[in-house]
Design goal:
5-stranded antiparallel beta sheet; 6-stranded mixed beta sheet; 11 strands; 2 helices; Immunoglobulin-like; alpha+beta; about 45% helix; 2 domains
């Protein structure tokens, strides 16, 4: 048998290597469009899911119905004479939400040494019902409302013996699943809600624009 020269063997190995690399390159070029198509589909699906999630957040924020209990303490008015000193305090509680508030309880706690001589409750609707919860403390008044519909409110007037400062009066209003806020705190939370809604709306607009640009580029590349 004739022996092959070392140079001829080396050339054969190089040719085989080149043919193998060419075949692998052709396979990679064949798989590359398929991979790009698969990645494009995955990116489209992920972007669509993310876009749907962001688009649903503002809708949920603006359509979610819930009660919103608030209260407000008005400046007191005092009557002082040589024999006695009387102070009248007025507190207003309301449901400013878009759903009814159930099992609403309001507690007004005046400082020690102050006695509630008399009290009066004025409701915004004649259909509103409430009960006065008897407490042993002379400086505490507690009321219970089975239901507060959206827009309904109640005003409480208290005749006190003594002259408590406005900062010493504590009010607690809460219902089933909701805690009342003072009017100033409620306005601040509404402002933050508007900022969040604005940011979400901007993100949705940006994502929608990017998706449109992406589809236009794909259409131009296919053309």
């Amino acid at each position: 048998m004739r022996r092959l020269s070392p140079l001829y063997s080396t050339l054969c190995l190089k040719v085989k290597g080149l043919s193998g690399s060419e075949s692998s390159t052709m396979a990679d070029e064949t798989d590359s469009p398929q991979r790009r198509l698969l990645m494009d589909r995955i990116m489209d699906w992920a972007g669509g899911a993310f876009f749907t999630l962001l688009a649903s957040l503002p809708f949920f924020y603006f359509t979610n119905e819930s009660p919103d209990l608030t209260y407000e303490v008005f400046p007191p008015s005092s009557f002082v004479s040589e024999q006695t000193e009387r102070t009248i305090y007025t507190v207003r509680a309301a449901n400013q939400g878009d759903a009814e508030a159930e099992d609403v309880r309001m507690v007004v706690d005046f400082p020690n040494g102050v006695k509630v001589q008399d009290s009066k409750v004025s409701t915004s609707s004649g259909a509103m019902t409430y009960t006065f919860e008897d407490t042993s403390a002379l400086s505490i008044r507690e009321y219970a409302f089975p239901l507060l519909n959206p827009g309904e409110s109640a005003k409480f007037s208290f005749l006190l013996s003594g002259s408590p400062s406005p900062q010493a009066v504590e009010v607690d209003v809460r219902g089933r699943g909701v805690v009342g806020q003072e009017r100033g705190d409620e306005k601040e939370s509404d402002a933050w809600g508007n900022v969040i809604a604005s940011v979400l709306g901007t993100l949705v607009t940006v994502l929608a624009t990017l998706r449109i640009i992406s589809h236009l580029r794909k259409r131009d590349s296919k053309a």
